[in-house]
Amino acid sequence: MHLHEYQAKEILERFEIAIPRGRIVGQSEDAQKVASRLDYPRYVVKAQVRTIERQAEGGIRFAASPSGVAATAQDIFEMSRKAAAEGSHQKIEPVRWLLIEESIPVALQIYAAVILDQSTSSMALLTSRSGGSGIEKRAALDPDLIETTPLRLTDAGLEGDFENAARHLGLPADLTEKAAAIFRKMAKLAYEIDAVQVEINPLALTPSNKFVALDAKLQIDDHALFRHPNLAAYRNAVSDDEDDPNELAADRHQLNYAALDGSIGIVVNGAGLALSTLDMLHDEGAKPANFMDIRTTATSLDIAYGVELVLTNPRTKVLLVNVHGGGMQRCDTIAEGIAIAACRAPRKVPIITRFAGNNAEFAAVRLEGAGISFEQTDSMQQAVRLAVETARVKQIA
Question: Structurally, how many domains does the chain consist of?
């Protein structure tokens, strides 16, 4: 299973490897909005396709402003549609998503990869001081361009001489230690998720002496996926019927989320409660703008991510919060996430809440303390009916 760049980077970040800040967009209309919110000095717009030379093929471009990001995004999407039309007899991967990232200044580009060496049927670390675009072609002309460090499988994971591989890059001592630590993390990643390729190219050294993974490729052994049910969402996303990237990102934030075609955004904890809420909305003749189930493992920042997805959905006319706090997920934690999202989301909509269970009263205090305007109700039925009535008024207006 070959992952898209943004998916690979999500996993790199989980293993404490620095990546640029960025967001995924699925259409050019969203590119300028996202870029404006990110507010970076310079942007890079990257087509999420698994071709080797994206930059040479026009799939990686730079922009200096949100309007430039929008124009660049439009051009890449148009280029993809034109290529698909002209090469309909070929298997051409369409550009469905773009990754809008902060453009990172680079002092040195390093190539680093942990791969399955087919010739020895063992894992190896590949490194080069001359990373960046065209590394495959350059390595074919210069066999000494990339150094190979054998890795051995132990009970503790993949082991090898990471320090020596880092020393051969010719870096100062402190940076050599940092590079060796990254190589060790890459090997740990490969071992823990059964990856046969973990490639960072380039691993950028910035002028402030920080290492950042500017691009990444990750391939997981299909035969080992049964051991990693948490990667199922990634598998769906790299199939022909690819899913909404927001749903995949929400999954990483401990949320079960799906965009729908209604006008009432919902925030609910627990799949059963979420489905009951959808049924009640249907009984009132209304449609939800999304499905959301907050898992018990979600933090307030995870919840804020999901709520922001709901609030930025242009279909959402009102936010319905139906929460029952339990021992592992308290009402005030969810309220804190809602407050964070409501404060930073550009769209403001009426918020109807129904808090019950653990710390229900404190949840309302949290929202009030954050200056969030909301209307608290005492029952699910009351909350649903008020949300439906509010949405209808908003649609008429």
Answer: 3
